[in-house]
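Aim 2, interim progress: modelling of the 2-phosphoglycolic acid-bound target.
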Amino acid sequence: MRRKIVAGNWKMNKTYSEAISLADDFFQLAAKDPSDSVLTIIAPPFPFLREISKCLEGQPGIFVAAQNCHHENSGAFTGEVSASMIRSADASHVIIGHSERRQYFAETGEQLLKKVNRALENELTVIFCIGETSEQRNSDIHFSVIRQQLEEVVFHLGEEILSAGKIILAYEPVWAIGTGVNASAAQAQEMHAFIREQLRGKFSAATVNEKVSILYGGSCNTGNAAELFAQPDVDGGLIGGASLKAADFAAIRRIMIGQAGL
Ligand code: PGA
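Predicted structure of the complex, ligand included:
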């Protein structure tokens, strides 16, 4: 059985006190719906990782992620944060390859592979993001774009990484991120099935079918989560805007719990 996952990407939002109260509010709501079947991940900005990880004690099934990491463990890289630092702050996951990193920070497939390897080496589980732009979809090259993003990074990893559940994929069409226009459930399912088919060309069917969770991201909210999560190849969501409201993120998590219990 693939793990069902709800992850909240806070991006560059919240001051320290706002972040702590958002986490507290969410944990209180989540405690009313304890779940073994759904993994919950929150990805606050770097300065809050340690504090929020500490608040997690006694919250089984909830984990903390960073939103990025550098590909070296240490060195003269002013302003950067390494995977080893993230791990030492008690975070367990890291988002790598988010389209905002690819777009605004010019991160390439080659760099992303280095980051993924470094994160894995530091015992972080990676949430690796892929997705096409609207221009690419309109030019009908979205499948080949996704295939290439997988080839650049995921295809370089060993079967044992995937079979250990150390890679979670997030399909996030760029045109759906922060726009209020989500991919339809059919579009999401079509791409998730395509991703799984590509992975089966490289890894064993058992690993791909049982161990690789693929999340949908892009304007996922309380109104559309149920339909998206009901798709057979959609194993949960990577939620941006709606994760900044404790009640909304808790509601999305509850939807996933409801479906995972079916
Ligand atoms: P959004 O962001 O839910 O605000 O569209 C999703 C993401 O970028 O992970």
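The pocket of 2-phosphoglycolic acid is lined by residues 9, 172, 177-178, 217-220, 238-242 (CB under 6 Å). The longest strand covers residues 4-9.
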